[in-house]
What does this fold into?
Amino acid sequence: MNRFRISTPEGTRDLLFSSCRALRQTERAVREALEGCGYSEVITPAVEYFDVFAQANPELDQENMLKIIDRSGRICVARPDNTTPIARIAATRLDDAALPVRLYYSQKVFRSVAGGHGHKGEFLQVGAELIGADGLEADQDILSAAFSALTSTGADNFRIELGHAEIYKALIEELGVDAQTAESIRRLIENKSFAALGDALAPYGERPAAKALGAMPQLFGGMEVLDQVEALTGNVRVLGAVSYLRRLYKALDEAGYGSRIMIDLGLVHEMDYYTGVMFRGYIGGAGAAILSGGRYNALCAKFGKDLPAGGFGIDVESVAESLQGAARPEAATRRGTVRIALTKGRLEKKTLSLLKAAGYDISELEAGSRKLIFALPDAGVEIVLAKAADVITYVEHGVCDMGVVGKDTIMEKGGSFYEMVDLGFGKCRFALATKKGKDVYGGYKTPVIATKYPAVTKAFFNKKNMDVETIKIEGSVELAPLLELADAIVDIVETGTTLKENGLEVIEDVAPISARVIVNLASAKMKKAAIQKVISDLESGLEG
It folds into this structure.
């Protein structure tokens, strides 16, 4: 039987019975909460012209959109987000409406997802947009609706973190870098890649903007982080944004939400989209943010009418799944435990030796066992042993809070997580190698590159604006140029002995490799103190 007749496309799934009931119950609670806050429902088409989203965000990644060609040949897309169509409505359909207008939606979004990662390509989102109002009261209105919506679901283990787009924008402008460098720095801050960010900012020395940007990934937690950024910079725009966050927090605290608020000044996603306050929501049991929103005052103007606006969207499917998971007996135990995934082999042994030096009891692991999950006595820590690529999968999906994995695996597999520490061991490098005397860069022929790491290879040559053909090799990649299958290889090199013995030589280093600590997006916020303790213990072992 043709499997496409009985299966669903990548990223989609059937929901039956209890899953349906849980989803509808959560959706209904959020809808009723938003209606109670004065928001009225709108429905937009599931299919829109591609131009709508390209107009809103020219930098939007087309690979993430599901495209459809209509009968006239125009490119359409299945709705990849809900805010952009509502901005279109606000700019073109609400001429007679009294401002501000409070709108909400409950409809699906669609994304194109890569196979094998377990990411959702279709999910139900409920959100709210406040059109035509700006300032503190408007942002308080939006955030109060977000708190009310999540509270209505019965969730008790959620937090919303606040940031401000102006902080990064002001500091990067003060630093005076080009657009490509600015984007590289932004990505490193967003991923909390502490070590790589330090390297990127090293050329700017002790300049105040560089020091403040370097600290941004660490500036998350309570209100104390606002004091910390004020001590790092005198930038008037930054201080203005910090002052605004203080006033917004005070207003929300007086409304009873203070205990659920966190600050993260490293919120720097979609900086061309957001213009002011930004926020994300996390809930226990979900591996990623279940709510995202902020102020986007420039969006409606792109459709012909300049209106201030702000809003948020909630992934109600993830909320419903988290609530179902919270009802299981093991959920309470997991809430107080830090689960660490270790890459089997050398990285595992070195990491365990660091934990042992810090006082953790790893005797059960040292005794030898075929178990894969170990609880460390009296530590609130569990160890999971896995293959390198699986460490990333477990951390990304939140079933493990953190992991130790090589930079090579991170570069090849990618994923959504924070890369928080370079542990410095397991050092080697990616390198481009070929037969002695061969010029890979010369001539008109498209070079053929053999490798176990096609993603790393393509990224390396893309930076050079070179077109290459890659061939995936699973075994001894050195054979490919010897057998004239490829012009060169990209592989991991430690000493270079194997290359030399086979008549190959390194012609260029691609990237350094070492062991890194990665942390789940939600766990970093919901279990900050416990995770930072483990990281501190690992670092103390390195120093010892």
Remarks:
- The mean pLDDT is 95.
